[in-house]
Amino acid sequence: MEKLTIQQWDEQDRPREKMMQQGIAALSDAELLAILIGSGSRDETAVELTKRILASCENSLHELGKRSIDELCNFKGIGEAKAISIIAASELGRRRKLEPTLERIKITCSTDIYQLFHPIMCDLPTEECWIALLNQGNKVISKRSISSGGISETSFDIRTILREAIVNRASGIAIAHNHPSNNNKPSRADDVVTLKLKEASQTMNIRLIDHVIICDGTYYSYADEGRI
After folding, report:
1. What distances in angstroms separate CA 109 from CA 139, 195, 213, one per listed residue?
2. Are residue 114 and residue 212 in the same domain, yes or no?
3. Taking a C-beta distance cutoff of 8 angstroms, is the pair 148, 125 a contact?
4. Could you tell me the residue range of the domain that residue 199 belongs to?
5. DSSP string of the chain, one letter each residue
6. d(CA 154, CA 130)
7. Are 65 and 151 members of one domain?
8. Are 65 and 94 contacting, i.e. CB atoms less than 8 angstroms apart?
């Protein structure tokens, strides 16, 4: 009887769907390899195939990383392209282990936010809005461009900002935008959007750390002014 392909499995058993529903940590080594190779053969599913490959390596990813293209191609269902994918993944894992861990920047004050965004914004001819997504310890997960506008203004979409925070599981955010005029005084529109963002982020239980207006050599901080 012909076995099912990845696309035909019960949804709970598909590695891709399982990862989306339960997280990547829920996948076995064989399921992760099955995602890499995409499909098995007419006689077995991708997971069955990868379990067999791992068994030949004593279920050791370290030993799997030593296998050559020719050795992997000895398994029915593994061609040169799939063998290369497995070897490339093993090499990426090896390089990640060798690479030093990058220390995330920690936001402790408005100056940290200014230094984070000034190199990005100092020479821009138009206004742009960026956010820093922060974890529980106020360390920067990532920074994202939210919008760009004209010489004197840019629109802040609060829904976009909060969506970025939620999708990236950020506990807090810091927002920044530049004034090409180099006048760091906030506009009425800046005040309004800051208040709205503060209220909306509180509703979502996301901390708004600060809103900083970036100029060249100077800045304005809503937190420093006691306005957040």
Report:
1. 12, 20, 14
2. yes
3. no
4. 110-221
5. -PPPPGGGS-GGG-HHHHHHHH-GGGS-HHHHHHHHH----SSS-HHHHHHHHHHHTTT-HHHHTT--HHHHHTSTT--HHHHHHHHHHHHHHHHHHHSPPPPPPB--SHHHHHHHHHHHHTT-SS-EEEEEEE-TTSBEEEEEEEEE--SS-----HHHHHHHHHHTT-SEEEEEEE-TT---PPPHHHHHHHHHHHHHHHHTT-EEEEEEEE-SS-EEETTTTT--
6. 11
7. no
8. yes
For residue 45, is it within any domain? yes
**What is the per-residue pLDDT for 38?**
86
| Residue 172: both structure tokens together | 């807090």
Average confidence score pLDDT of the chain: 89
Q: Does the pLDDT value for residue 164 go beyond 80?
A: yes
d(CA 63, CA 57): 6
Q: Tokens 């990547």 label which residue?
A: 24
Q: How large is the average pLDDT for residues 134-140?
A: 97
